[in-house]
Specification:
The chain has eleven helices and eight strands. By secondary structure, it is an alpha/beta fold.
Length: 339
Amino acid sequence: MPPAIQLTLPPAAASGIGSLPGTAARYSAAMVFETVPGLPYLPELPARGPGADMIGRAFGILTELYAATEPSGWRFAEHPGRETRRAASFLGEDLDALEERATDYRGSMKAAVAGPWTLAAAVELRHGDKALSDPGACRDIAASLADGLRSHVVELRKRVPGHQTLVIALDEPALPAVLRGSVPTASGFGTLSAIEPAVVRATLQMVVDVLAAEDVPVVVHCCAADVPVELLQEAGVAGLAVDLAYRVDEEAWGGFLEAGGVLLAGVVPSAPGATLPSAQRCAEPVRALFNRLGLPAKELGRVVPVPACGLAAASNEHVRAVAQLCADTAKVLAEAAEQ
């Protein structure tokens, strides 16, 4: 099954996951556009506090759903409060920095937001358990996210009018746990029931279809093990960002890549202070996977190297080194594709 919208990028494209260290939006935007060729992205800076983290960023985008922070984490609120206003303010600051840096940019770019199932697994209902326990709440989250992303796309296009392709990445680190039934309850003494794959798929497909109508391809980032590749392919996603250190379902990956899906390969270590290998070493897991799948080497140029996960806890120097290594790995793969 092909993606709802095909993701086409230039050869030797690299990218990032989204979260970066520090609190300086302008510095981060400049660093991204200076170091990551092919698919720069809108940074997230969670060090600024609630509202700038992955879940908080989403509440700057969701429509008619609000949340506040409690000792236990994020909880839905009846009216917009301080945290919702902070989320919108941080997002506006990041968009201002993006607009300033990318005034004359011509090319593709990516913006990330927490996906509907990770939001449902993270946010508590006003007087109950996590939203994942309530099918109606799960539907409301997905509908609000889809509507908010439609407006977010309009804003991104207004800020960077010269872009060629806009990509939305759904961060879904909780997705495997949602399908396994291993998401903890709000109390922490139990786990919530597994969600049927058909329900998970239909919800994601609804968001993908809304963005497809805006000519926006969707990639899903999941740095956990057991990424449900086949389910995500059926939902119409154009690309998957995964940590290749985990064992992969090769049959599912073969089908996804042969159908035109793009691999955003998490092959560059993201742990703070980690010793970085050579670009050749980072490219090896990708080349080995393609060899095992029997895919032609010419397709290696479509692979987008990314860090294994976010870089919020790293130093700025380490972030720059990781970004450069992603770019160098992309060149290695592009050269292999031409041989």
